[in-house]
Write a structure and sequence with these properties.
Length: 485
């Protein structure tokens, strides 16, 4: 009965956390530790990890698992765990659903439950050596209960949570990236306020989606809970969205197809965890970094992600965005464009839009702004040649407007060429008044060649028949017409 009451209290806290705005301080110290933890979590995938700012770095490997112990020049000790590698054994660890108790090493009575696969990824042949190395590093700190940071990406984050339970006496900070839920409730050794778990998002791709989320933190069927400060990373370089403490809300759609949101090192188009945190550090000159939600008009799916606590669709065809209260109508803005409750400049040619008023040209075609003449410029989406200012729509998935081609360029239709003339040799010809092979002349030549080819074939057929008849009778004796007796 007592356990049931505790569970009900925990669920009530989760429900309250999803509707109320809580506070978190992303101080300079926390952000610098998060930045170092992110870079070390990426290095934990390397056979020979490197760290320029580390004063010491110890590497442990027992495939498919790996761990690092690093110390920085500020005296912090990092325990780092590798995430999932593309091997059958490692994936087998991820999906092993059996329960396994994990207890603190100093007090065997303080325990909670984890998944067998995550536990196996921690209890390796080197785990005791690693724990000893972390404790040795912590013993040199001025404040041993303050200087330990445990971190990891993906499965490495789950393993870091198990390590935090075992070394709870060191009062470690836990900083994870895309961590799956790893520990059951209740888990008394957890100090939630010292745990930070980052979840990345993926922004719009060619206007086909609004926002999608790293799927790993929301993996179903684990039967476990998430602990710590839930911090959402997005396209807003000025701040983050703090979702709540020990918050287990589910977010969708999940970025399952591309999986870019789960990467540590992403691209300019689809940033990973390191890219997001580095951008936040570079874009903010003062601390703490804002954590009360994304500014308008960032994509979102829930109100808690937004600084304004309003996540809404502007039109039926648009995706939900964080809404500001700066304006209500276009006429409220000097720019004559009110988008998601905020005044914005009009959009130029080919920029992503969802209504005509977004565009300086006055038209939103195929969710892209047209030019001032209502047509699409080069490199912008199209369906037909008539959609393009150049008169040429080419390609697939999606077709785009292209510049017309000059004389001598390869072509397959007249609209490909500046002259409007693609020759029978599939080359752009000169303009009609300058070259003998105009469209009409080309048709005449093609017709003449077709008739000549038919005549040649007929002549060859007659010759073949004649030769066959000649061969049939050649070499035979003449049959006598009378018989002499």
């Amino acid at each position: 009965m007592k356990g049931s009451t505790a569970t009900m209290g925990f669920l009530a806290a989760l429900s309250a956390g999803s509707s109320a705005r809580a506070d978190i301080v992303l101080s300079e110290k926390i952000m610098k530790l998060s930045q170092k933890a992110a870079h070390l979590a990426a290095e934990a995938y390397q056979p020979e990890p490197a760290c320029d700012w580390c004063t010491s770095l110890v590497n442990y490997i027992e495939e498919p698992d790996q761990a690092l112990v690093a110390e920085d020049d500020a005296g912090y000790c990092f325990g780092v765990f590798r995430g999932t590698t593309p091997t059958a054994v490692d994936w087998g660890q991820n999906i092993d659903p059996r329960n396994e108790p994990v207890c603190t090493t100093k007090d065997r009575s303080a325990c909670c439950t984890t998944r067998q696969g995550f536990y196996d990824a921690y209890i390796t042949s080197y785990h005791q050596k690693m724990e000893n190395e972390v404790r040795k590093c912590a013993s040199k700190c001025d404040r041993p209960n303050e200087c330990v940071v445990l971190t990891g990406h993906s499965q490495g984050g789950a393993v870091a949570s198990i390590a935090a339970v075992r070394m709870a006496d060191l009062n470690p900070r836990v900083i994870t990236f895309g961590e799956p839920p790893a520990l059951d409730f209740p888990c008394p050794p957890v100090t939630s306020s010292r745990w930070y778990r980052y979840v990345n998002t993926k922004d719009s791709e060619m206007g086909l989606i609004g926002v999608s989320y790293d799927p790993v933190p929301f993996v179903p069927g684990m039967g476990t809970q998430q602990y710590g400060n839930f911090v959402m990373l997005g396209g807003d370089p000025t701040g983050t969205a703090f979702i709540g403490l020990d918050n287990n809300d589910q977010f969708s759609p999940l970025n399952v197809a591309g999986f870019q949101a789960h990467s540590m090192n992403g691209t300019l188009e689809f940033p990973g965890y390191i890219n997001r945190i580095d951008t936040l550090m570079q874009s903010n000159n003062t601390y703490p970094i804002r954590a009360n939600g994304f500014a308008s008009p960032e994509y979102c799916t829930k109100n808690v992600e937004c600084e304004s606590l309003q996540c809404e669709k502007e039109t039926h065809f648009s995706y939900s965005k964080c809404v500001s209260d700066e304006c209500e109508e276009d006429k409220d803005c000097k720019t004559d464009r009110c988008d998601s409750g905020q005044c914005h400049p009009k959009l130029g040619s080919c920029m992503e839009c969802d209504e005509d008023s977004d565009c300086a040209g006055g038209q939103c075609l195929f969710f892209r702004c047209s030019n001032g003449h209502g047509q699409m410029d080069d490199e912008c989406n199209c369906f037909r040649n008539e959609d393009c200012a150049s008169g040429r729509c080419e390609g697939l998935a999606p077709p785009t407007c292209r510049a017309t081609l000059g004389e001598g360029a390869h072509c397959n239709e007249d609209s490909d060429c500046k002259s409007g003339d693609c020759s029978w040799l599939f080359l752009c010809e000169e303009s009609e008044n300058m070259h003998v092979f105009t469209a009409s002349n080309r048709n005449f030549v093609l017709g003449f060649l077709k008739n000549a080819l038919v005549l040649l074939c007929f002549t060859l057929a007659i010759c073949a028949v004649g030769m066959a008849l000649r061969n049939k009778y050649e070499g035979y004796e003449e049959i006598p017409t009378s018989i002499n007796v």
